[in-house]
């Protein structure tokens, strides 16, 4: 856009817009004056210090169900921990340096400790196995303060749907719903009764509101409609479980007036950002025409790799729709995989490294 | 015809404030093919007063994105940095969602470009970066822009809270897709209402900057809005200049519940100047997240 000539009058009169001309002149002077004694950050005021990571110690460990352990974590000096609300998770740094999110399953009113439950997944990324093998009472670890990506909104009627270990964020919600007298139901789904953690704790809240549904007794996994049939009238649905379960519930809700379904049905679940990259090939990115070259493995995004070298590079959605991470491509044959950039923007060299890649062995030269 | 999506009712103890929310953009899409020019039926002026949003927001929110991207390297706190990045993504999606409505207006014979060109001048030139300044001044100017955004975000949260609580638009049978756009956007504004203010306090906790940027941003916003309504009424091909904007008409529309009460809006602006102000004092996170769990656009985005 032309930033030298002020725009013309709105109604076609043959002159520049007076208001905008004056506004521009005033702002030009004003910005020049910034940095003067009254128009700057008070230099005597100290900068706020960033909060350090939490230091935690494992206080107790107990077996909850087949393959599931529960850990109680506390401040090593016994002080109160930062507050949290149902649905919040803790990002733990494991001894190997791996970082993993675990939903808090305890009572938010208990500020003395955090409680998490972890199922051992031998086929997973190794985090749960490490928790099971190395975290015993007395073990120290660091964590980041609880964050909440699955907030509980306390609608008057709620249906909580848990699949297996997905019970962890829903248990504090059930407790909160019970405390506030909401019309709530909880359905806990799993393979067999011995794989369902926290069954006693749930029944103690209100046995009439809790349904434990096991595949071995009911002959297979439940359908979405079957799960929604437990909903009180007009209930908002909170679902946490394996992806197929969530998809089934989503489909059943969108499919029409089944239980809580139909228009206006509410569905809450935790979003986990981008899906793993399954169709990528290894390539390389060069940071500037004479900069260093970094390898991008098949299962990582170029953005991930770039951020290691350029920590201030902005990004947001990780999925190629928001456009925040846009960088300029100087050379190399790109494989654009975003849904944001127009053909003109791509032709002009824009690229979204959160999803876009290159063919095996190619190098993309980026202006970063 | 699809019905508007109701905003869910909440039980009395629902948390108004949710701590440390994870903010993420939502990949929403809207289909405007069926949108009538006057999407509040028989209310051209109400339609155009709300349409000013589509004229201001694409340029305005792209400017937010640009300013906040420049501010990211100044952030010393990891959680705030993540919140700012989530905010940037949400604002970027908002800008493009409103841009699509703008393109649709042009297709209906209402050419918004002369006004949009002025808005672009305000955000890109008047409030733009000035690379020729000294680094110290440039940094001060950047913080000043963050402060202006914090002031504007106070109003977007106010408007977001209003649109979630405005049954008047449902009663007037406003277009359900447009209502979903406005309520999805409004709900995300309420969801992330603290981020700009927290960033400002992180970069400069001083009170003077907060007051002076509100004193500039508030009146500028009102002026641009009034100017936009006059422009749209004059440019609407079906009105041919017959409908003159008037305060009396605006008052009638407000009484019908189609616009926020101007006195309440002004008072809300004053609340921003209270020394103990924090954005969490306005609006309800539970209500906003409750709507996002219900909104057809946000629900469809979640399934992608």
Q: How would you describe the overall organization of this protein?
A:
The complex is a heterodimer of chains A (368) and B (304). Chain A has 368 residues and is an alpha/beta fold. Chain A is built from 9 helices and 18 strands. The mean pLDDT of chain A is 93. By secondary structure, chain B is mostly helical. Chain B is built from 12 helices and no strands. In chain B, helix 1 (44-71) packs antiparallel against helix 2 and helix 4 (135-164) packs across helix 6. Chain B is globular. At the A-B interface, helix 1, strand 6 and strand 11 of A face helix 1, helix 2, helix 3, helix 4 and helix 8 of B.
Question: Which terms would index this structure?
Answer:
heterodimer; A: 368 residues; alpha/beta; Elongation Factor Tu (Ef-tu), domain 3; Rossmann fold; 4 domains; six-stranded antiparallel sheet; five-stranded parallel sheet; 9 helices; 21% helix; 27% strand; globular; B: 304 residues; mainly alpha; 64% helix
Give me the secondary-structure topology.
The complex is a heterodimer of chains A (368) and B (304).
Chain A: H1 18-33, E1 54-65, E2 68-74, E3 88-93, E4 99-103, E5 113-119, H2 127-134, E6 140-148, E7 157-163, H3 167-179, E8 183-190, H4 199-205, E9 210-214, H5 215-218, H6 224-228, E10 236-240, H7 243-254, E11 266-268, E12 283-287, E13 293-296, H8 302-309, E14 327-331, E15 334-335, H9 343-347, E16 350-351, E17 357-358, E18 363-367
Parallel strand pairs in A: 7-8, 7-10, 8-9, 10-11, 12-18
Antiparallel strand pairs in A: 1-2, 1-6, 2-5, 3-4, 3-6, 12-13, 14-16, 14-18, 15-17
Chain B: H1 44-71, H2 78-107, H3 113-126, H4 135-164, H5 167-171, H6 176-191, H7 195-203, H8 207-235, H9 247-255, H10 262-271, H11 285-292, H12 296-302
Helix pairs in contact in B: 1-2, 1-3, 1-4, 1-8, 2-7, 4-6, 4-7, 4-8, 6-11
């Amino acid at each position: 856009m032309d930033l030298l000539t002020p725009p013309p009058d709105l109604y076609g009169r043959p002159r520049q817009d007076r208001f905008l001309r004056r506004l521009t002149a005033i702002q030009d002077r004003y910005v020049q004056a910034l940095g003067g004694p009254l128009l700057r950050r008070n230099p005597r005021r100290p900068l706020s210090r960033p909060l350090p990571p939490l230091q935690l110690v494992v206080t107790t460990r107990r077996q909850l169900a087949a393959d599931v352990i529960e850990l109680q974590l506390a401040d090593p000096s016994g002080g109160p921990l930062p507050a949290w609300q149902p649905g919040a998770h803790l990002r733990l740094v494991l001894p190997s340096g791996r970082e993993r999110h675990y939903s808090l399953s305890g009572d938010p009113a208990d500020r003395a400790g955090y409680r998490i439950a972890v199922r051992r997944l031998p086929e997973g990324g190794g985090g749960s196995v490490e928790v099971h093998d190395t975290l015993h009472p007395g073990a120290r670890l660091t964590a980041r303060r609880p964050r909440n990506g699955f907030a509980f909104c306390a609608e008057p009627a709620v249906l909580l749907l848990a699949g297996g270990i997905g019970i962890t964020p829903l248990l504090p919600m059930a407790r909160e719903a019970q405390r506030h007298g909401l019309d709530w139901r909880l359905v806990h789904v799993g393979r067999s009764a011995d794989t369902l953690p926290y069954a006693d704790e749930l029944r103690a809240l209100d046995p009439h509101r809790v349904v434990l549904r096991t595949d071995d007794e009911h002959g297979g996994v439940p359908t979405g409609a079957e799960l929604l049939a437990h909903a009180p009238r007009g209930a908002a649905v909170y679902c946490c479980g394996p992806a197929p379960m969530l998809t089934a519930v989503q489909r059943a809700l969108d499919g029409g007036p089944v239980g809580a379904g139909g228009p206006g049905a509410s569905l809450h679940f935790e979003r986990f950002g981008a899906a793993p990259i399954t169709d990528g090939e290894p390539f390389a990115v060069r940071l500037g025409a004479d900069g260093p070259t970094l390898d991008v493995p098949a299962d990582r995004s170029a953005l991930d790799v770039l951020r290691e070298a350029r920590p201030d590079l902005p990004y947001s959605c990780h999925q190629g729709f928001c456009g925040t991470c846009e960088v300029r491509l100087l050379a190399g044959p790109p494989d654009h995989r975003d849904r944001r950039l127009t053909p003109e923007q791509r032709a002009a060299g824009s690229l979204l490294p959160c999803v876009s890649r290159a063919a095996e062995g190619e190098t993309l030269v980026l202006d970063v | 015809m699809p019905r508007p999506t109701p905003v869910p009712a909440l039980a009395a103890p629902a948390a108004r404030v949710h701590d440390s929310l994870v903010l993420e953009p939502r990949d929403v899409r809207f289909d405007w093919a069926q949108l009538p020019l006057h999407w509040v039926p028989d209310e051209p002026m109400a339609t155009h007063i709300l349409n000013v949003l589509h004229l201001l927001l694409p340029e305005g929110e792209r400017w937010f994105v640009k300013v906040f991207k420049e501010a990211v390297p100044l952030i010393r706190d990891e959680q705030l940095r993540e919140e700012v990045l989530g905010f940037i993504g949400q604002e970027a999606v908002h800008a493009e969602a409103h841009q699509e409505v703008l393109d649709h207006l042009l297709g209906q014979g209402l050419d918004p470009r002369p006004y949009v060109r002025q808005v672009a001048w305000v955000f890109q030139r008047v409030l733009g970066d000035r690379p020729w300044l000294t680094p110290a001044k440039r940094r001060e100017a950047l913080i000043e822009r963050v402060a202006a955004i914090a002031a504007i975000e106070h109003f977007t949260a106010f408007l977001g809270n209003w649109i979630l609580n405005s049954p008047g638009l449902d009663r007037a049978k406003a277009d359900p897709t447009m209502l979903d756009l406005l309520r999805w956007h409004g709900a995300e504004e309420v969801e992330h209402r603290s981020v700009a203010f927290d960033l400002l306090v992180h970069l400069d906790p001083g009170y003077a900057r907060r007051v002076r940027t509100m004193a500039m941003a508030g009146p500028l916003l009102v002026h641009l809005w009034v100017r936009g309504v006059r422009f749209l009424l004059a440019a609407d091909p079906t009105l041919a200049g017959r409908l003159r904007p008037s305060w009396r008409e605006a008052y009638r529309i407000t009484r019908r519940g189609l616009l926020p009460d101007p006195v309440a809006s002004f008072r809300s602006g004053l609340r921003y100047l209270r020394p103990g102000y924090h954005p969490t004092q306005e609006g309800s996170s539970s209500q906003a997240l409750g709507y996002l769990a219900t909104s057809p656009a946000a629900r469809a985005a979640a399934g992608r």
